[in-house]
């Protein structure tokens, strides 16, 4: 902020205006801090959700892979019993 004519002439006015400016600055910093804390909380929640989804996806891939391998082994077993042992 620019200094006013009153501030240039009176030290008391300058001190009081600076005090008001610093109060406003502190208020803005407190607001910014609370916003950053809120953002940090949201980011942590999203991170946790992503980790849970990744774990579920890995479990799903293992299940599908096991099912496919089981089907392939069953097919090979059927082919061996059908064409080799007959």
Q: Can you describe this structure?
A:
- This protein is mainly α and 86 residues long.
- It has one domain.
- Helices cover 91% and strands 0% of the residues.
- It is built from 2 helices and no strands.
- The chain has helices at residues 5-9, 11-83.
- The longest helix is centred in the middle third of the chain and has 73 residues, at 11-83.
- The protein is rod-shaped and about 115 Å long.
- The mean pLDDT is 93.
How would you summarize the topology of this molecule?
Layout: H1 5-9, H2 11-83
- Please describe the biggest sheet, giving its number of strands, its sense, and whether it closes into a barrel: none
The rounded distance between the terminal residues' Cα atoms is 97 Å
Q: What integer is the average pLDDT?
A: 93
Number of helices: 2
Relative strand content: under 5%
Q: Would you count the extended β strands for me? A: 0
Secondary-structure element string? HH
Any idea what the radius of gyration is?
Answer: 35 Å
Shape field: rod-shaped
Count of domain modules: 1
Structural class label: mainly alpha
Task: List its traits.
86 residues, mainly alpha, 2 helices
What would a concise description of this structure say?
The protein has 86 residues and is mostly helical. The chain has one domain.
């Amino acid at each position: 902020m620019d200094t006013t004519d009153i501030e240039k002439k009176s030290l008391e006015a300058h001190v009081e205006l600076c005090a008001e400016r610093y109060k406003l600055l502190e208020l803005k910093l407190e607001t910014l801090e609370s916003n950053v804390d809120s953002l940090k909380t949201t980011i942590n929640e999203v991170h946790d959700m992503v980790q849970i989804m990744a774990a579920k996806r890995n479990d799903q891939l293992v299940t599908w892979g096991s099912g496919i391998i089981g089907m392939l082994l069953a097919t090979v077993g059927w082919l061996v019993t059908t064409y080799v042992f007959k």
